[in-house]
């Protein structure tokens, strides 16, 4: 495995973590009705 491959993987995981973290924060801030409709869309 090259060092550049590792760097790309770390960057991908990092962006994924920050995206999921921002989604969780957004879900916590939203009222319950909107939260329920968001979960329906994912299924």
Mean pLDDT over the full residue set: 81
Q: What is the CA–CA distance across the termini? A: 36 Å
Largest sheet: none
Unreliable spans: none
Q: Which percent range fits the helix content?
A: over 70%
Q: Give me the Rg, rounded.
A: 15 Å
Describe the protein.
Helices cover 88% and strands 0% of the residues. With 43 residues, it is an all-alpha fold. It has one domain (1-36). The radius of gyration is 15 Å and the shape is elongated. The relative contact order is 0.09.
Descriptive terms for the model:
about 0% strand, about 45 residues, mainly alpha, single chain
List the helices and strands and how they pair.
Elements: H1 3-29, H2 32-42
Condensed summary:
With 43 residues, the chain is mainly α.
């Amino acid at each position: 495995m090259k060092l550049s491959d590792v760097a790309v993987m770390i960057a991908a995981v990092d962006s994924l973590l920050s995206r999921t973290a921002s989604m969780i924060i957004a879900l916590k801030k939203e009222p319950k009705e909107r939260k329920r409709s968001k979960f329906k869309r994912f299924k």
